Prior knowledge:
The protein has helices at about 50-65, 90-100, 130-135, 160-190, and strands at about 1-5, 10-20, 35-40, 75-85, 110-120, 125, 140-145, 150-160. The chain is an alpha+beta fold and about 190 residues long. Strand 5 and strand 6 form a beta hairpin. It is globular, with a radius of gyration of 17 Å. InterPro entries: ExoRNase_PH_dom1 (IPR001247), ExoRNase_PH_dom2 (IPR015847), ExoRNase_PH_dom2_sf (IPR036345), PNPase/RNase_PH_dom_sf (IPR027408), Ribosomal_Su5_D2-typ_SF (IPR020568), RNase_PH (IPR050080). Belongs to the RNase PH family.
Amino acid sequence: RALLSVCPGDTSVLAGLYGPAEAKISKELPDRAALEVLLRPKVGLPGVLERSREQLLRQTCEAVLLGVLHPRTAISLVLQVLSDAGSLLSCCLNAACMALLDAGLPLAALFCGVTCALQPDGTILLDPTARQEQEARAVLTFAIASRERKVLMATTKGSCSVEEMQQCLAAAQSAASTIFQFYRDSVRRRYSKC
């Protein structure tokens, strides 16, 4: 299955999810599904940054995926960057969640990605553009679960105080409600056509 995720600010990611399918013996896990996440840049080959993001995405997906219901299987999630105008990691997180949801895989909760840019004057921008990210003092991306707005993953580039990080987290948790409503509306539209 393939699914296109377009985030505000013209960043778009195409997500394809394959599985659960028979796993190769070397990758087979006896107690749960083995999840593989591949992030493909718009041009060129994946580098260190993509590998780092793949690990963050995989850990986030594994935190909610009920893989114990599909032991000894493999699930592959392929994310292809179509355009990057900023907030790429959060767009990838949103595409990953929508792909898992669309494939009907059992999840303990939904999750979404929210990126915050902390400007030099202390202002917090949600869903920053690439230029706003470059000008920011710090860029923080959070993966927020739909249950109790729990933080599944957080990553920071730049420097900020603990208080500023807490302010960014509060803003991200608040913004997550809008994204989860978007998920509900998207699923409702998709399945009301059947």
